[in-house]
Each structure stands twice: as structure tokens, then as C-alpha cells.
Amino acid sequence: MARTDRVSRVIAAPPAAVYGALLDRESVEAWLPPEGMRGRVERWDPRPGGGFRMVLTYLDPAGSPGKTADATDVVDIGFADLVPPERVVQRAVFESDDPSYAGTMTMTWQLAAAGDGTEVTVTATDVPPGIDKEAHETGIASSLAHLASYVETAA
């Protein structure tokens, strides 16, 4: 059965600023990796039908087996839909020999004005069964915290 994971956070920045950080290479490299990881964007094409490839590396490889290699996750992200400044829809495919990480996960970043800020809701659908639900939601929450820090500092 297809699984959906969802996390929300209010960010003290306008929707346009948050949306901009979702589509800027340097920004994504800075805020997307969850706590305990660093990321590197290898390819970048921010348009519908475009996308990017990100290499995520665990800072402490002990007890952190990667999906792609020891302590490394590689994911190809396609931009399926871009609706400024309301929504970014991504299709994520992990590079892995493990069939429990196979398939295409859809990540929808929905932005809604919330007072002086923006409520960002990330909905992941068709999450591969190899990804632990609690760890995934914790990772998304961490990325959202980094996004908040990134755009709130810039605002």
C-alpha cells in the first residue's frame, strides 16, 4: 500500500522568499540536507521537466548506512510542477540496488500565507518501504527547520 508522510512548519518569511529558496541551487544545497548530513548538487535545471541530482553524505558514517553506498544517498529529483509562489512538486528517485528504495516518490511543497509568514507543508507520497516513516518525517522536519533558518536570516 502506498504511504504518505507529511510535515508542516510556519516560516517567518513571505511565500515568495520561501519559494525562491526552493528553486535556487545554492539555497537548496544549504538548507535541504537534514541534520547530520551534508549535500552537494551535481546537476541543476529549475524548470518543469528539469530537476537536479543531489548527493547526501552522512557526517558520522557509523551506524548510518546509505541507500546508494556506505554513508551516501544519491537522489535524482525532477520538477513535475512549479506554481509560483504556491507549490513545487518534485519526483524523487533514489539510486540504490536495494529494491526497498525503488520507485518514484512525489514530494509536494505547498506554501500558504500565514500572517506575516508562510506555512510550508511537505507531503511525500509513494514513499519507498525501505524508508522508515519516523526517520523520514524527522528528516523532513529538519530540512524545514534549516529552510526556516536560511530564509528568515536572509529576510
UniProtKB/TrEMBL annotation:
InterPro entries: ASHA1/2-like_C, START-like_dom_sf. It comes from the Bacteria. Signal peptide: none annotated. Belongs to the AHA1 family. Residues 12-152 form the Activator of Hsp90 ATPase homologue 1/2-like C-terminal domain. This is ATPase. SUPFAM superfamilies: Bet v1-like. It holds the Pfam family AHSA1.
